[in-house]
Amino acid sequence: MGMFSQIKGLAREMAKTLKGGSGGSSLRKRAPEHKIIHWREKKQTLFGVRPHITRKELQKTFEKLPDNIPHIGKFSKEERLKIIEELYPQKEVGTFVTPSEYNRGIRMLKKKLRRTGNLRERQEIRTKIKLLEHLKGEQNEK
């Protein structure tokens, strides 16, 4: 009788899974679309989950940007590369740029902005800050 009861138990479980009971999750019906939770995709940032990027990657990123960036301003390729050389010189930073060094460059520009009295220079510095923050990905999160 022991073997017969085991077979009966297996038959019951199989019947539950075919009916969509608690036994099997593979045969469950899909939930209505409005009840399904869609996870947001991770925002694309300059660093992503990496602890650092190389200077060459940073230069390529700046080179690939269009000349006119909406809501930020116009920068030629030479101007963008000059920003990198000003803020992240090879002697100070080395071959890798970390997020803290990238933020330090933004902070240096903000200090320069406070000290500058000339309105034209202030506007140029503001657009540089906007460009760097846009690349970092902060502007997308706000």
Q: Which stretches of 5+ consecutive residues score pLDDT under 50?
A: none
Strand arrangement, major sheet: 1-4
Structural class: mainly alpha
> How much of the polypeptide forms β-strand, as a percent range?
5-15%
Q: How many helical stretches?
A: 7
Q: What series of H and E elements makes up the topology?
A: HEHEEHHEHHH
Average predicted confidence as pLDDT: 80
Write down the overall geometry. Answer: elongated
Biggest sheet details: 2 strands, antiparallel
Chain-wise SSE layout:
Blueprint: H1 2-19, E1 53-54, H2 55-64, E2 68-69, E3 73-74, H3 77-87, H4 90-93, E4 96-97, H5 99-115, H6 119-136, H7 138-141
Entry keywords:
two-stranded antiparallel ribbon, about 140 residues, single chain, mainly alpha
